[in-house]
Amino acid sequence: MFDVYCPACDKQRLIAPGQVRTMINDDQGIAVIYECYCGELGALRTGAAHEGALV
Q1: Helix or strand run (H / E) with residue 6
Q2: What local confidence, expressed as pLDDT, does residue 54 receive?
Q3: SS3 state of residue 8
Q4: Closest residue by Cα to residue 23 from 33, 35, 8, 10
Q5: What is the pLDDT tens value at each position of the chain, 55 positions in all?
Q6: Other Cβ atoms closer than 10 A to 36
Q7: Rounded distance between C-alpha atoms, residue 8 and residue 2, angstroms
Q8: CB-based contacts of 29: which residues, under 8 Å, 6+ apart?
Q9: CB 46 within 8 A of CB 6
Q10: pLDDT at position 15, please?
Q11: If residue 20 lies in a helix (H) or strand (E), which one and from where to where?
Q12: How far apart (Å, rounded) are the C-alpha atoms in residues 35 and 41?
């Protein structure tokens, strides 16, 4: 599960694995694309590259 803020419904949400639509791994880290309970798509950036670690 992921804890995210959804600006569309103005709430903190726990996103379940079934709400993850795709994941993209690029030079900026990992982008987890999810669908909020309100239907809005969002992205959560994570990973070592995103945290500013030396790669």
Answers
A1: strand 2-6
A2: 44
A3: coil
A4: 33
A5: 889 999 999 999 999 999 999 999 988 889 999 999 999 999 998 876 666 544 4
A6: 18
A7: 17
A8: 45, 46, 47, 48, 49, 50, 51
A9: no
A10: 93
A11: strand 20-26
A12: 4
Q: What is the pLDDT of residue 53?
A: 47
Cα 51 to Cα 25: distance, rounded to the nearest angstrom: 14
The Cα 42–Cα 35 span in angstroms is 6
Q: How far apart are CA 21 and CA 18, in angstroms?
A: 8
Residue with tokens 């599960």: 1
Measured between alpha carbons, how far is 25 from 36 in angstroms, rounded to an integer? 21
C-alpha 17/C-alpha 35 separation (Å) is 10
